[in-house]
Automatic annotation (TrEMBL):
Organism this protein belongs to: Nonomuraea helvata
GO molecular function annotation: hydrolase activity
Classification via SUPFAM superfamilies: alpha/beta-Hydrolases
AB hydrolase-1 domain boundaries: 3-225
Protein name per the record: Alpha/beta fold hydrolase
InterPro entries in the record: AB_hydrolase_1, AB_hydrolase_fold, Sec-Metab_Biosynth_Hydrolase
Keywords assigned by UniProt, alphabetized: Hydrolase
Record's keyword annotation contains Metal-binding: no
Domain of life the protein comes from: Bacteria
């Protein structure tokens, strides 16, 4: 199976480095994307939009031979919104979307327009701006390493509205790897009609896998995250 790994805010494709071995050793082919504007801290990202990130994933999907089968999209955090929109654009080419501490973003929603913007981009904020649940298992060493590698996210990616057009996206199976909050809690919120899980509630086939840790399991529990992705994808 071809697996496309989509990073969240402040991260490039290398953020998946400790997760990839579990997938490749199981026989899967992986491609960890670095999205537009995230090539380096010095890249010009002033005009990069959410659609640019989505289009980059769609281009990656299209690069695979359709005769070779469908692909799996794995999106972490804000990358989950990008993965969902790519599945909307290519519902017949995506076998499953795996949301890593993330949920699909519905039509008109924004990923997070409350983050502090500096000169048209969103640098990694001070740790005090995050919720305690975000930072579980993120010790001082991991925090320092993350801040050292962090690349500012384009402002428009955080605040552009999601645009979707094909309801066949609801037929694409999904897995939520639940980290900060359990799958049971997500289902409870769906039953209550909470807005941020409204799009998730519309997907017809969803599995939930609990991986209790903070918001960045690729750093705090990478091997376990690899195994969770394998459990959702199945054998090569």
């Amino acid at each position: 199976m071809d697996i496309i790994l989509i990073p969240g805010f402040w991260l490039d494709g290398s953020s998946w480095d400790e997760v990839v071995p579990a997938l490749t050793h199981a026989g899967h082919r992986t491609r960890a994307l670095t999205l537009p504007g995230m090539e380096s801290k010095d890249a010009n990202r002033s005009k990069i939009t959410l659609r640019d990130h989505i289009d980059a994933v769609v281009e990656a999907i299209d690069s695979y031979d359709p005769a070779g089968g469908k692909v799996v999209l794995v999106g972490h955090s804000g990358g989950g919104a990008v993965a969902h929109a790519a599945a909307d654009a290519r519902p017949d080419r995506v076998a499953r979307v795996v949301y890593v501490d993330s949920v699909p973003l519905g039509e008109g929603g924004v990923i997070n327009d409350e983050l502090p913007v500096v000169n048209g981009e969103v640098p990694l904020p001070d740790w005090s701006l995050f919720e305690p649940e975000d930072l579980v298992d993120m010790d001082d060493e991991l925090r320092a390493a993350f801040r050292e590698r962090a690349i500012p996210t384009p402002e428009h990616v955080t605040s552009d509205p999601q645009r979707l057009s094909d309801e066949r996206r609801y037929d694409v199976p999904a897995t939520v790897i639940a980290c900060e909050f359990s799958g049971a809690k997500l289902r409870e919120w769906m039953e209550q009609g909470q807005g941020f899980v409204r799009e998730l509630a519309k997907i017809r086939d969803v599995d939930y896998l609990d991986l209790p840790t903070g918001h960045w399991p690729q750093f705090t529990r990478p091997e376990e995250l690899g195994r969770a992705i394998l459990a959702s994808v199945g054998p090569a």
